Amino acid sequence: MQFLTKAVFLLFFITNLVGCDSQTHAEHKVIQSIDKTLCQFHREVCNQDVNDLVVGLMINPVFAPSEKPLQIKLHFSAPVSDVQMRIEGRDMFMGVIPVNLQSVDEVNYTGTGIYGSCSSDYMVWRAFVSYSYQGQTQSTWFDFLADNSG
Questions:
Q1: With a cut of 50, which residues of the chain have pLDDT below it?
Q2: What is the Cα–Cα distance from 104 to 25, expressed in whole angstroms?
Q3: What are the residues facing 142 on neighbouring strands?
Q4: 91-101 pLDDT, tens per residue?
Q5: Nearest-5° Cα angle at 85, 46 to 112
Q6: Helix, strand, coil shares of the chain as percentages rounded to 5?
Q7: Based on the domain organization, do 58 and 121 belong to the same domain?
Q8: Which candidate, 124, 144, 128, places its Cα nearest to that of 74?
Q9: pLDDT digits (tens, 9 = 90+) for 42-62
Q10: What are the φ and ψ backbone dihedral angles of 100, each rounded to 5 degrees?
Q11: pLDDT value, residue 96
Q12: Number of Cβ atoms within 10 Å of the Cβ of 2
């Protein structure tokens, strides 16, 4: 009788371990699916078309690591002025991170930024860009995944 009881308990625990294992893999598969709306810097410059003006953002390192300096490049398809940029968490408040941009010329701007890490394995950041184009203030944003291995 004791042998049968031990065997049933052992079988119960083994079944639960296998069940937990497959649930973990299912969660990872959901996280690993690629959101096509996010910038993929490892593939290309991320572009937004705003009133016939193309605004391009590139971040290096391309996997946008947390707690590491990021080299940020903005390119505009026509001359602009008064360019400003900030980074914020898209889905959770992580503070407002200003990016100090330097003008290379009328269409190219560079700067550096750094943001903190999140306890979640999936942290989407939003880069807000505002600028003056043909006398009017305009803005756009770019969403990207931190620590994106591609």
A1: 8-13, 15-30
A2: 47
A3: 127
A4: 888 899 999 99
A5: 80
A6: 20, 45, 35
A7: yes
A8: 128
A9: 999 999 999 999 999 999 999
A10: -85, 110
A11: 94
A12: 6
pLDDT of res. 25: 46
Give the C-alpha separation, 150 to 61, whole Å.
Answer: 12
In a domain, 39, yes or no: no
For the whole prediction, is pTM greater than 0.85?
Answer: no
For residue 10 the two structure tokens come to 């052992």
Question: Are residue 23 and residue 89 in the same domain, yes or no?
Answer: no
Domain that holds residue 81: 46-145
Nearest in space to 54 (alpha carbons), one of 44, 45, 63: 45
- Alpha carbons within 13 angstroms on the beta-carbon side of residue 89 total 13
Q: What would the DSSP string read from start to end of 85-144? A: EEEEESSS---EEEEEEEESSSSEEEEEE-----SSS--EEEEEEEEEETTEEEEEEEEE
Do the strands 81-89 and 124-133 form a parallel or antiparallel pair, or are they unpaired?
antiparallel
